[in-house]
Amino acid sequence: MGSSPPSSTLRVCFFGTYRANYVRNQVIIHGLRAQGVTVYECHATLWHSVADRVEQAGGGWRRPRFWGRVLRAYWQLFRAHNRTPAYDVLLVGYPGQFDVYLGRLLSWWRRKPMALDILMSLHLIAEERGLTQQSPLTGRLIFWLEKVGLHLPDLLIADTPEYQAYYCEKYGLAPGRFHLVPLGVDDRLYQPRPGITPPGNEFRIIYYGTFIPLHGVETMLRAAALLQDQPRIQFHFYGDGQERPAAEQLAQALNLTNVHFQGWIDKETLPDEIARAHLCLGVFGTTKQSRCTIQNKIWEGMMMQRPVITGDAATIRQELGHRQHVYLVERANPQALADGILELANNPALCRQMVANAYERVQANTIAATGRVTRQALESLLS
Which of 114, 138, 285, 326 could form a disulfide with 214 if both were Cys (CB 3.0 to 4.6 A apart)? Predict the structure, then answer.
C-alpha cells in the first residue's frame, strides 16, 4: 500500500488545538510518519467536543471563562512549541483557522514556513448549522477571523478542487497557494472483515454519523417509508447529533418499523457493524459543504468492501464512477434513493462488481498514500 519511505528525513511540527482523534489529523500524522517524516506533535486542548464548539459559537465565547480557556490553551501551545526540536515546516492541523495566528508568530520566530490543512470552512459550518443566523455578530467574527487567518500560511491544503475554488472566491485567495491532499481513510481500523458477514434474513443498511444537515437523514427516512412494503430491507442508524431528535420524531410520525436507532458505538466496534451491513449510506443533503467534499463514510465503506450509495455531485464524479465504485442518486430525493436501494438489494452481481472496483480505487486514499501526497505538498515549501 505504498513505496518504501524516503531516506531523507523531513521534520514537521504538527501544531494547534486540532481535534487529536479526528480521522483527517490521524491519517496525516501517521501517513507522514509512514513516509519517513519526523512528526513532532505540538498540541493543546481548547475544545472538549463538537457540542462544546457549537455552544461557544452560539454565544459562549462572550463569557470571560471561555477567554480564560483560550489563554491557557495558547500558553500551553507556546510552551510546547518552545520544547519542540528543530523542524522544517510547521503544519497546523484541522481545525486550525484560529491557531494560525499564534502559529505564524512562532514559525517566523523559528524562520520556518507554515502550512494549514483547512479541510472545512468554519464559517460555512456555522452557516449550515444556523449559528450565523442565531448570532450575526458571531458569524461576522468567524468570517473575518477565518479570512485573515487563511492569508497567513505559506501553503494551504484542501481536499477537493471544489473546496479550493470556494475558498478562493470567498476569501480572495490565489489558487497557486493551494495543494490538494485527498481525504484519507484510516486503513489501520477500516479493513475487510471476512469473518463477519451480513445476516441472511434481511438486507441490512447502515448509516453512522453525527446527524448534521449535510447528511440528509430526512431523505434516508423518507426513502425507508417508501420501502416499508419490503420487510427484508432494514435500516440501522448509529450515532447522535443535531438532528437526531427530529429524525426519531419523523420516524415515529411515519410509523417506520424498518428503522432502528442504535446510538453511539465506539470506533473500534463500528467496523464490525459496517461488516454486518449489506449496504452503506453516504450523504444526501444539498448543502454547499455536502457537495464540496467526499465524506469519510464513503471511503470507509469502500475500504470495508461494502457497497455504498450516496448523493450525486460533481465532486464525487471527478473521483468515483456511478455503478462502478459507488451508486449515485439525486440528492434530497427519497424516491431516487429508494429505487437505488431496491436495485442494489436485488442485484448482488452489481454489488460485488462495485465492491471490487471500489476497493482497488480506495488504495489511493490509504494512510501511506495520503502521507506521500502530504509530504510532497510540504516539501514544495522547501524547494
Answer: 285
> Strand (E) positions, the chain?
11-16, 38-43, 89-92, 114-117, 155-158, 178-180, 203-209, 233-239, 259-263, 279-281, 308-311, 327-329
Residue 97 is part of a domain; what is its CATH number?
Answer: 3.40.50.2000
Name the amino acid, one letter, at 338.
A
Cα three-residue angle 66-68-70, rounded to 5 degrees: 75
The residues with which 329 forms a beta bridge, in sequence order, are: 311
Q: 241 with 101, same domain?
A: no
Residue 6 lies inside a defined structural domain of this protein: no
Is the pLDDT confidence value at 1 over 80?
A: no
Q: Which tens digit of pLDDT belongs to each residue from 302-341?
A: 999 999 999 999 999 999 999 999 999 999 999 999 999 9
CA angle 322/327/332 to nearest 5° reads 110
**CA torsion, ordered 200, 201, 205, 210, to nearest 10 deg:** -110
pLDDT of residue 245: 93
Which domain covers residue 346, as residue numbers?
Answer: 203-365
> Would you place residue 57 in the very low, low, confident or very high pLDDT band (cuts 50, 70, 90)?
low
Q: Are strands 114-117 and 178-180 parallel, antiparallel or unpaired?
A: unpaired
Distance, in Å, from the CA atom of 253 to the CA atom of 116, rounded to the nearest integer, reads 45
Radius of gyration, alpha carbons of the chain: 21
How many Å apart are CA 180 and CA 6, to the nearest integer?
21
Alpha-carbon distance of 269 to 89, in angstroms, equals 36
Task: Please check whether residue 40 is in contact with residue 84, taking contact to mean a CB–CB distance below 8 angstroms.
Answer: yes
Question: At residue 203, what are phi and psi to the nearest 5 degrees?
Answer: -100, 105
Q: What is the 3-state secondary structure (H, E, C) of 182-231?
A: CCCCCCCCCCCCCCCCCCCCCEEEEEEECCCHHHCHHHHHHHHHHCCCCC
The structural domain count of the chain equals 2
Indicate the pTM of the whole model: 0.89
- Dig out the grid coordinates for 20 from the structure: 487529536
Amino acid occupying residue 138: T
